[in-house]
């Protein structure tokens, strides 16, 4: 019921306008036989989570109100028990199928900080070759069931071969390019904004609100020693595919303006723009090979 209400009520649109409320971290642990686990951490600002909860409850009450002369569709006692919660084990179990054939939900728990709340979930897979992970956090959004066919899906896939050493190839999403090439987009982004100073200040203020504290990260950790890799960011047996801290972008007003003018439609586009910012890690190789034993 909660999911239907959120989808019908357009809560997804609200989340899109408050993207900075999210912190998503995905860690894939791989064993020498090609099996492993996925550790997914999803956090949302408490302020936005409370807003969604209130809106969902209001819309549920509206749907539960019977038309004149009609009996109530749902007992009040049942209505009171149902409430929005980011940690929804039924939803997490359902999302396992969207991560690939044979992926199963293992466990999960609520987590919270002073300003954020959410969950940590662990999934298991027997064969990483059947794994597909959407690097765009849309799959984890409360109003976006996994595998819903959203245009935002940017799948990371894997090819594994056993051996000594074992070989893992990580394939990043093949996102269709925009009609405009990168040079054209870069030139447009460098043009002065036609808006006056006041409008520019308002835009910057809105952007800072949207992206404050937003973080998206994905890493691969192999069980064993890495003997060869073309990965850009490696620390021991961990390969960082991306670590985007949008607070770094907020510290550079000129870059922030360019980012808003480019209007990146995918996470791959955002990575291309942010890859050279200090403190940002973004793997730009379309295939990353990891040999380990």
* Rg from Cα: 21 Å
Helix content estimate: 25-40%
Assign the structural class, choosing from mainly alpha, mainly beta, alpha/beta, alpha+beta, or little secondary structure: alpha+beta
What is the H/E string?
HHEEHHHEEEEEHHEEEEHHHEE
Sheet bearing the most strands, described? Answer: 8 strands, mixed
Number of strands: 13
Figure out the total of helices: 10
Q: Whole-Å distance between the termini?
A: 48 Å
Whole-number count of domains: 1
Uncertain stretches: 1-18, 76-81, 144-150, 183-193
* Average pLDDT rating: 80
Strand content: 25-35%
Describe it:
- With 293 residues, the protein is of the alpha+beta class.
- The chain has one domain (22-45, 89-292).
- 32% of the residues lie in helices and 29% in strands.
- It has helices spanning 2-8, 11-17, 46-64, 76-81, 89-95, 182-190, 197-211, 246-250, 253-262, 267-274, and strands at residues 22-30, 36-45, 104-112, 116-125, 132-134, 155-161, 166-171, 215-222, 226-229, 234-235, 238-245, 281-282, 287-292.
- The longest helix is centred in the N-terminal third of the chain and has 19 residues, at 46-64.
- The radius of gyration is 21 Å and the shape is globular.
């Amino acid at each position: 019921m909660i999911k239907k209400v959120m989808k019908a009520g357009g809560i997804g649109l609200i989340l899109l306008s408050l993207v900075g409320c999210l912190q998503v971290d995905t860690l894939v642990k791989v064993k020498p036989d090609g099996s492993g686990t996925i550790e997914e951490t999803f956090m949302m600002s408490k302020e936005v989570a409370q807003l969604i909860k209130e809106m969902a409850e209001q819309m549920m009450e509206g749907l539960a109100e019977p038309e004149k002369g009609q009996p109530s569709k749902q007992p009040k006692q049942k209505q009171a028990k149902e409430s929005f919660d980011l940690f929804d084990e039924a939803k997490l179990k359902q999302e396992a199928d969207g991560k690939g054939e044979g992926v199963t939900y293992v466990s999960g728990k609520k987590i919270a900080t002073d300003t954020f709340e959410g969950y940590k979930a662990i999934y298991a897979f027997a064969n990483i070759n059947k794994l597909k992970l959407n690097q765009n956090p849309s799959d984890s959004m409360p109003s976006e069931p996994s595998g819903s066919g959203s245009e935002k899906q940017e799948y990371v896939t894997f090819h594994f071969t056993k051996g000594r050493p074992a070989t893992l190839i990580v394939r990043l999403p093949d996102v269709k390019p925009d009609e405009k090439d990168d040079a054209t987009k870069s030139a447009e982004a460098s043009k002065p904004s036609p808006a006056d100073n006041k409008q520019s200040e308002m835009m910057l203020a809105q952007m800072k609100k949207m992206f404050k504290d937003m973080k998206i990260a994905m890493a691969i950790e192999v069980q064993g020693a890495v003997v060869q890799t073309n990965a850009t960011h490696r620390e021991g047996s961990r390969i960082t595919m991306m670590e985007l801290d949008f607070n770094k972008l907020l510290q550079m007003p000129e870059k922030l303006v360019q980012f808003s003018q480019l209007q990146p439609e995918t996470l791959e586009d955002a990575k291309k723009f942010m890859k050279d910012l200090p403190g940002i890690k973004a793997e730009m190789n379309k295939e990353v090979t990891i040999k380990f034993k």
